[in-house]
Amino acid sequence: MRTDYQLRQTVWKDWLWGGENLRASPDPMAASYYISRMGFQPHAYSGLETGSRNVVRHVVRQNRIIFVLVSPLNPGNEEMGRHLITHGDGVKDIAFSVEDLDAIVKKAKERGAKIVKDIWEENDEGGKVRFAQVQTYGDTTHTFVERGTYNGLFLPGYKRPLVPVDNITKTLPDPKLDFVDHIVGNQPDLEMEDAAAWYEKHLIFHRFWSVDDTQIHTEYSALRSIVVTNWEETIKMPINEPAPGRRKSQIQEFVDYYGGAGVQHIALNTKDIISAIRHLRSRGMEFLSVPNSYYDQLKEKLKLSKVKVVEDMNVLQELNILVDYDDNGYLLQIFTKNVQDRPTVFLEVIQRNNHSGFGAGNFKALFEAIEIDQAARGNL
Ligand SMILES: [Fe+2]
Fold first, then answer.
1. How confident is the model at residue 12 (pLDDT cuts 50, 70, 90)?
2. Where do the VOC domain residues begin and end (predicted)?
């Protein structure tokens, strides 16, 4: 069924960051991390200097990927402070660029979505932007952004960064990450169905792909996953829940530390994952490691496969990049370690070669790699 509106590519996300960036630094630590380690560039800023009295927002950008890192400026800030105490650093909001905000909000309301903030407008010299915000799983929200003909730097109220060019970006190679491929939400036990159904009911998404715990399990833990997507299939939102195993599922570990449902990982698409991971490793980014036995098995299995991986398998192994495939194509993917102290959010880098899956064939290898770290944390 064709929907009567369009939800296009995810274009920005609000991230929370707290603690040490409360000091008056022009380029605080979280933004600096994404710039130096991940190859983002300073893009826009909103804070005391621009008239924002309650929160500061550092916007970092890499091609079509935009993260907005937000922290409270004042003691006792309700919205940001409470989220930060409960969840630690995490993804508070995932925003979608939309073409017909009125139609989306009307439909969401008719179908009973919780509206966090009804349609509002913001203006500056670049023009007008319209927004609305709805509640999805846990404390996570979606903001719909209708830009119209707005031609400012980012959104109304934002100015150029206080430090427009970080000197470190002049000397480090560009990882060339292009766009958000998918964003995964972890749910508590038995809440996956409801979370997936929320997207079907309120945003007219449909199911794209799913796996159950008979397909994704190790000796110790298991998960189930449903991927929902918009009509155009430009937004992919896998929804996970833990499944019973001999020990604690990694999904349950996330839920325990995050304090409920929330975003587990953001996958960033690139056309050249080998160069991207070489460059990210040279920047000191840390990734999960994969046992050599994974590559031994993979090389044997690929001999029997119709698909030919053009990348050098020895280079993929050296960089710990995972491969999943079917008869028509393959994907290459790798997962970072957690990007904050709590074992919650991490990032993925992915390259697709005519393959639209999510690496089900790699979940076991990924699980086993995560479980090594989970055991080291005393949580397995
Ligand atoms: Fe993923």
1. very low
2. 16-147, 179-337
